[in-house]
Amino acid sequence: MHVSTTTRRSGENEYNATLLRRSYRQDGKVKKETLANLSHLPPEAIDAIRAVLAGKTVMSVDQAFEIERSLPAGHVTAALTMARRLGLAKLLDRSPCRERDLCVAMIVGRVIGPGSKLGMVRTLGQSTLAQECGVVGADEDDLYAAMDWLVERQDRIEDRLAARHLRDGEMVLYDVSSSYFEGRTCPLGKRGYSRDGRPGLPQIIYGLLCDTDGRPVAVEVFTGELHDDKTLPSQVVKLKDRFGLSRVVVVADRGMVTKANITLLSETDGVDWITALKAPTIKKLARSGVFQPSLFDEQNLGEITDVAEFPGERLVVCRNPLVGAQRARKRNELLAATEIDLAAIAHRVTAGTLTGADLIGLATGPALKRYRMRKHFQTTITDTTFTYTRKTAEIAAEAALDGFYILRTGLTETDLQTGDVVRAYKNLEQAERAFGSIKGPDLQIRPIHHHLEDRVRAHVLICMLAYYLTWHLKAAWKPLLFTDEHRPVSPDPVAKAERSPAAQHKAQTKRTSTGQSAHSYRTLLTELATQTQNTTRLHDHASTFEKLTQPTALQAEALDLAAHAPVVVDR
To answer: In whole angstroms, what is the distance from residue 468 CA to residue 461 CA?
Structure first.
């Protein structure tokens, strides 16, 4: 018996027939007989009949194959694709070695699954990362040894990054942040101003240098009690001496540029700066008459000069009405909240349940401190009375400066136009965005569990390099993310940044221009992780083979974008 498929055409129509037939000999002649019409059966059933007639054993797919293990692979493939395009391994060291492979694995591992080094060991075994990086079987001790190897090469790594991304005359963004410790034995861990809201824990300070586009170039770790301004001098030395830049413009936050630092920047050949004045200085300028807020009722940008206080500098005054309205609303809310607390104290005094100037004062202090409104209230306390009033003149003077900020720079107008000075300072948000990624769910630099000083420095360096990789992945995946692909440049540098119509449409529809679901960076990585590498064993065989699942349309597009995005590599 055999299965026969015939095709017959009738005009423009084509008819297929699958028949079960047998051949036999009669009177010396070969004859054929149709036993059944199989045309109505599904193709897999017809194939099974063919196999049985050919003497093969038929079994279900579930019986023929056994999937022994599935490992998430898509997110590893995407991250390693970008890492290889960036030459990440050669960036760490020119010579291949196991330590270099482990460091690449730690950097990529922090991108796809941030956590502790013990968690990193688990990540290696719970994805294809260990196999792809050639570090199968690595444990915590191997990772710690690789960190010691990496920190010795930090200067050379930063030098290579600077050679890639910094050119003479370029603006360099510099900002600092802090992260807290779990433990008390590291000499770097000190108590200081905590940006994490953990004042009771020791912390470290780290300063990040970025190029104009926000790519990280160098990072330096300082002890936790150090003030921000004390970190700037070493960055100037790094830019001039190590990176060999003959001219550079440092854009830094207002908290870092003190009088001593301005003197240092001014006296260093080829170094200019852009920063901002602190609020007390702005108030002083307003009181002295150098800066008159009323002149900016019809304009939001202008320059003033103060030869006495800021000789040879340009002061660029900016007024943002939206920020001003927000500050006014917040101040009114805090004043009202403080008055509620003070009214409760006054009621207790009137009722006689709170007496004595000392006790009344003890109750009043926390109420004024709670919302930091002490400067706006005048209180009068005796043993039996308590009154309070708003300082209307001081409040009005502060409100007059709502929405104002003043930038200062040593650059002449020939070097940089007024509007470009504002744009350059606002671009400092790129460094703040880097800290948001390093400290946030993307990379999770905190809490820091290491106890040795070099291990802490290596940990911070790994996080910086992981952000370098993350920056490029986010840039490549802009078409798939909610990120604005082509952010418009406003002709008004002070005005609030606006999203492009395409980005607004993406946010409203939750769809990309190609119809795919728009994602955040983390959800896209999660989606990529659903592409797995399956280890499969054949029925009755000891041997296995590995095969990736077919990527979805979204996964294929993400992998293609990572493979073809423009990047800057060593020249």
So the answer is: 10
In terms of Cα–Cα distance, which of 306, 249, 239 is closest to 277? 306
Tell whether 230 is covered by a domain: no
Distances (CA, A) of 468 to 73, 148, 389: 21, 20, 53
CA dihedral sign of residues 149, 238, 88, 452 = positive
Assigned token pair, 57 = 């054993």
Burial of 479 (0-12, 13-18, 19+ CB in 10 A): middle
482 within a domain of the structure (yes/no)? yes
**Residue where one domain finishes, among candidates 346, 373, 399:** 399
CA dist., res. 550 & res. 171, Å (int): 45
Domain of residue 485, residue span: 478-564
Residues 315/304, Cβ–Cβ less than 8 Å = yes
Cis ω on the peptide bond leading into residue 96 (within 30° of 0)?
no
Q: Give, for all 571 residues of the chain, the pLDDT tens digit.
A: 888 888 888 777 887 888 888 888 888 788 888 888 888 888 888 888 888 888 776 656 566 677 888 999 999 999 999 999 999 999 999 999 999 999 999 999 999 999 888 888 988 889 999 999 999 999 999 999 999 999 999 999 999 999 999 999 889 999 999 999 887 888 999 999 998 988 889 999 999 999 999 999 999 999 999 999 999 999 999 999 999 999 999 999 988 888 888 888 888 999 999 999 998 899 988 888 888 888 787 788 989 888 788 888 899 999 988 889 999 999 999 999 999 999 999 999 999 999 999 999 999 999 999 999 999 999 999 999 999 999 999 999 899 999 999 999 999 999 999 999 999 999 999 999 999 999 999 999 998 989 899 999 999 999 999 999 999 999 999 999 999 988 888 888 988 888 899 999 999 999 988 888 899 999 999 999 999 999 888 766 777 888 899 999 999 999 999 999 988 876 5
Q: Alpha helices of 352-416 — where are they, by DSSP H?
A: 357-370, 392-399
- Answer with the one of 384, 399, 414 that is the final residue of a domain: 399
Q: Which long-range contacts link 91-98 to residues 24+ away (Cβ below 8 Å)?
A: 91/157, 91/160, 91/161, 91/465, 91/570, 92/150, 92/153, 92/157, 93/153, 98/135, 98/142, 98/146
225: phi then psi, degrees, rounded to nearest 5: -90, -5
CB 378 within 8 Å of CB 391: yes
Q: Model pTM? A: 0.85
Residues in the chain: 571
Q: Where are the beta strands (DSSP E) in 55-170?
A: 65-72
Q: How far apart are CA 206 and CA 223, in angstroms?
A: 8
Q: Which residues face 67 on adjacent strands? A: 536
Going by C-beta distance under 8 Å and a sequence separation of 6 or more, which residues neighbour residue 73?
127, 128, 529, 531, 532, 533, 548
525: CB partners within 8 A, 6+ apart = 75, 78, 111, 112
Residue 8, CA distances (Å) to 11, 16, 50, 527 in order: 10, 6, 22, 48
Exposure of 471 by Cβ count < 10 A (0-12 exposed, 13-18 middle, 19+ buried)?
Answer: buried
Q: Is 538 part of any domain?
A: yes
Residue 29 lies in a domain: yes
CA angle 47, 53, 59 (to 5 degrees): 55
